[in-house]
Amino acid sequence: MLLTAGAGFGGLALAHLLPTSVFSSPAPSPQPLAPKTPHVPPRAKSVIFLFMEGGPSHLDTFDPKPLLKELHGKPMPQTFKPVILAMGENNSPIMDSPRKWKQHGAGGLWVSDWLP
């Protein structure tokens, strides 16, 4: 058993003669959740954090769906994957977004009328 676990008594003697850092990992930090130094120095001087609880979602502001406008009021096409709703109803007509969309800026980003 001793031979398979660590090369016998020779392994025990060698472990005693070598420094302990060879066999152990570095000592853990006294506070593992303490902030660590970054790999690169930070360049940002300030941050704007937007937490818009109840605000408009990206689907209502930056994601126009032109196919919904074409299919508004029609039943779901057979080529689409069937939708299973909570109450089992799957023949409701398709609804278009009530938002109006316009392109803005030099890049032509589509934005809804939720934003000015």
Q: How would you describe the overall organization of this protein?
A:
The protein has 116 residues and is of the alpha+beta class. The protein has a domain at 57-116. Helices cover 22% and strands 7% of the residues. It has helices at residues 2-6, 8-17, 58-61, 66-71; strands at 101-104, 109-112. It has a two-stranded antiparallel sheet with strand order 1-2. A hairpin with a 4-residue loop joins strand 1 and strand 2 (109-112). The longest helix has 10 residues, at 8-17.
Briefly characterize the structure:
The protein has about 120 residues and is of the alpha+beta class. It contains 4 helices and 2 strands.
List the keywords.
116 residues; alpha+beta; two-stranded antiparallel ribbon; 22% helix
Layout of helices and strands:
Blueprint: H1 2-6, H2 8-17, H3 58-61, H4 66-71, E1 101-104, E2 109-112
Antiparallel strand pairs: 1-2
Largest sheet: 2 strands, antiparallel
- Strand tally is 2
Q: How are the strands of the largest sheet arranged?
A: 1-2
- Helicity level: 10-25%
* End-to-end CA span: 77 Å
The sequence of SSEs as H and E is HHHHEE
Average pLDDT, all residues: 80
Q: What is the radius of gyration?
A: 32 Å
Name the overall outline.
Answer: elongated
